[in-house]
Specification:
Methylamine Dehydrogenase, Chain H, Rossmann fold, alpha+beta, 20% helix, 694 residues, seven-stranded antiparallel sheet, 4 domains
């Protein structure tokens, strides 16, 4: 039986002149001029583009037809590790305990509450699964009860475009109030007096640009804040002590916060500290003072400052927790009698609890690699905080921690219905030496009896952008590869904040190449120590991690048996030159502005995966995307695969799978999403076995 024939995309050269430079894009036609409407209604996609995407999906299905039984088995295994009738640990607020729970077999949760401390008397606040019936996509971005416990609001996206609709339920009557808020961002907040809802409007370019205030039970919107800089994101919230409303303005390198006294929620906001390029800060009010986390004055890994002023301008800040290089303060939480901060040292998390008298102690664990995170609560006047502990071998554990007595109470351990024995596995922390001498952490998970002679197949995962750290967490998905004798490894490359904010700064803009060379150094280190073999590894990354996949496929194609690029940001030069796209101006601080800066243009052009595709024997590649994705638009992986297929000199196939009913995060249901992961893993196994063809 002959192999399926891949789609052949037509070439329609578009010559682009920019800053005295010329490039030709043969596949620019794949971007629908009507893309904004496509985000909201995929049915309006231009016919020739849809025809090509359908052909690509059919080709991928045909090529991977022999893996369908494997995909089904992988899906069944992953699903079998999920407790189907699961529920969260209740979070107490006043007279109520709030939680989410799943019915057996449900894709989406039920939001509920019951009288505090009781196991009966449930009030259903929102049944997501019922609302999702008959919809190809349904996702709740945020859901909050009002402080007086009389209203419940939620933001729902029914397309994957990340345009949300906010609705509010009256908990006394059980009815939904007769209005809705459209074109909203995914988050919002009630004022502490429960009278107002503060929400963010998403404009026609899908950017958050305005904050509005609306009476919580209906009425006219009032503009609270408008951001003129298209390069900034917006957020809304409250301080922990409910003294102020907070409007957060910022991007990857600059912050500005506006405040509204909660006692006068209709007052115009005032700025805490005006924005200064390169200075980030966040703050909270700790009863009688402000606490500010900032990188000001060269505090690369951040410090804490305090201010007792009504308006916490920079001139009023006093250092509180000094900056220590290599100790990255990632966040903090304020309680009436304690301040809790989260920090990361050499890619391991710590929690530090401080009493008002300044005495502090550390909460930490002993595993070689683990993740430790604070879980926010509703109450300020409490001695309890909650944290979650996990490691690659240890399922999640939720602890309530008494900050005064230091007593830990285990509230829940993630249950694995199909069984999980941590003793079967080993997690290790390795270090690869980068070309410039930097020590790059690698987290490895494998069966204890896996041989370290290069014979085990290995998957290396990476991201390395925006300062996002790759936590050494527990995954019900990765075990399906590990149980088959695979080694799962995560490369904590520069561009993330795994080793501090400086680790991030060393992997962005003019130093972006470090992200790619770090990943390659990790692959070579693993092979040199028997954790895999060069040329027989799978590489895996998504979104900006998909850009990493495209870069390493160009730089060192011979290292990989297969490359999985999920929603890959690969058309970097074109995207960063298109100001109509949602994330372009906000992302110039990360990549540079190739419209105005020739150096940025040349730098991006030097690594942009789509632009660097050239005749070479590429490994097998699977690129995935979502038609409604506003973050990485569908045409990026579509164009990339077409160009790869045109240029590759090898026999390995280039595959594209576009979800025609979802956005950046893929399928919205907790089980449906696993089918997409099963496809990725089946491709990795298939590519390793075919070897193309050895």
């Amino acid at each position: 039986m002959s192999a399926p024939k891949p789609p052949v995309a037509r070439r329609d050269p578009k010559v682009i002149e920019q800053l005295g430079r010329t490039r030709t894009d043969d596949y620019a036609w794949m971007k629908d001029d009507n893309w904004k409407e496509v985000l909201r209604d995929p049915k309006v996609l231009r016919a020739d583009i849809r025809e090509h995407l359908d052909a690509e999906n059919a080709y991928t299905k045909a090529m991977l037809a022999g893996t369908e039984a494997l995909q089904a088995q992988l899906f069944a295994e992953m699903k079998g590790r999920i407790k189907e009738d699961d529920s969260s640990v209740p979070a107490s607020d006043g007279a109520w305990d709030y939680y989410v729970r799943y019915e057996f077999g449900a894709e989406h949760p039920v939001h509920g509450r019951r009288p505090r401390g009781r196991s009966d008397g449930e009030v259903v606040l929102l049944d997501e699964d019922a609302m999702a019936k008959g919809k190809a996509f349904f996702q709740v971005g945020a859901a909050h009860h009002s402080p007086d416990h009389r209203l419940y609001a939620w933001a729902a996206d029914e397309q994957g475009s990340e345009y949300y609709t906010i609705r509010i339920k009256d908990l006394a009557t059980g009815g939904t109030l007769p209005f809705q808020i459209d074109s909203a961002y995914g988050d919002f907040t009630f004022s502490p007096d429960s009278q107002w809802l503060f929400w963010i409007w998403r404009d026609e370019n899908a950017r958050p640009s305005k904050v509005f205030r609306r009476p919580a039970r209906g009425g006219e919107d009032v503009l609270v804040y408008e951001e003129k800089d298209e390069g900034m994101f917006l957020g809304v919230g409250k301080t922990s002590d409910d003294s102020h409303m907070v409007v957060h303005v910022g991007n990857q390198e600059t912050t500005e916060i506006w405040l509204i006294p909660a006692g006068d929620p209709t007052r115009p906001p005032f700025v805490a500290e005006p924005r200064r390029v390169g200075v980030k800060y966040d703050l909270d009010h700790w009863t009688d003072r402000w606490v500010i986390r900032t990188n000001d004055d060269g505090a690369v890994d951040f410090k804490l400052a305090t201010s007792s002023a009504e308006i916490p301008a920079r001139s009023t800040w006093t250092d509180f927790i000094a900056h220590e290089p290599g100790r990255y303060i990632t966040g903090f939480a304020a309680f009436e009698s304690h301040l809790v901060r989260a920090q990361r040292v050499n890619a391991l998390d710590e929690i530090v609890v401080m009493a008002r008298d300044g005495a502090e102690h550390v909460v930490a664990f002993d595993e070689e690699a683990y993740a430790l995170s604070l879980e926010g609560g509703y109450e300020y006047e409490t001695t309890l905080t909650r944290f979650v502990y996990q490691s690659p071998t240890t399922p999640r554990q939720w602890f309530d921690y008494d900050m005064t007595t230091r007593e830990r109470t285990l509230r829940k351990t993630q249950e694995i219905p199909s069984g999980h024995d941590p003793a079967r596995y080993v997690a290790r922390r390795l270090y690869a030496t980068a070309s410039d001498g930097a020590e790059v952490p690698i987290t490895v998970l494998m069966l204890k009896d896996t041989p370290l002679d290069g014979s085990a197949p290995l998957l290396l995962y990476g991201y390395g952008s925006y300062g996002h750290a790759m936590e050494p967490s527990f995954s019900i998905r990765n075990l399906s590869l590990v149980d088959r004798g695979w080694i799962w490894a995560v490369a904590h490359v520069r561009g993330g904040s795994d080793k501090g904010w400086g680790w991030f700064l060393d992997g962005r803009k003019e130093k972006k190449a470090n992200t790619f060379t770090d990943f390659i150094a990790c692959a070579e280190h693993l092979a040199a120590n028997g954790y895999g073999a060069l040329g027989e590894m799978a590489a895996y990354g998504g979104s900006a991690g998909g850009m990493l996949m495209g870069a390493v496929a160009n730089l060192r194609p011979e290292l990989w048996s297969g490359v999985i690029a999920a929603v890959p940001f690969v058309d970097v030069l074109n995207t960063m030159s298109d100001t109509t796209l949602p994330l372009t101006p906000p992302e110039w601080p990360e990549w540079g502005n190739p419209i105005e800066d020739a150096a940025a243009y040349d730098r991006i052009a030097s690594y942009s995966p789509y632009d660097r595709v050239a005749p070479r024997p590429y490994p097998a590649i699977l690129a995935t995307g979502g038609l409604s994705d506003p973050r990485v638009t569908y045409w990026e992986p579509q164009k990339w695969v077409a160009k790869l297929r045109e240029n590759t000199t090898g026999r390995a196939p280039m595959l594209l799978k576009i979800n025609m009913e979802a956005g950046h995060g893929g399928a919205s249901g907790r089980f449906d999403f696993l089918k997409e992961i099963a496809l990725d893993y089946a491709f990795a196994i298939w590519a390793a076995e075919r070897g193309w063809e050895k």
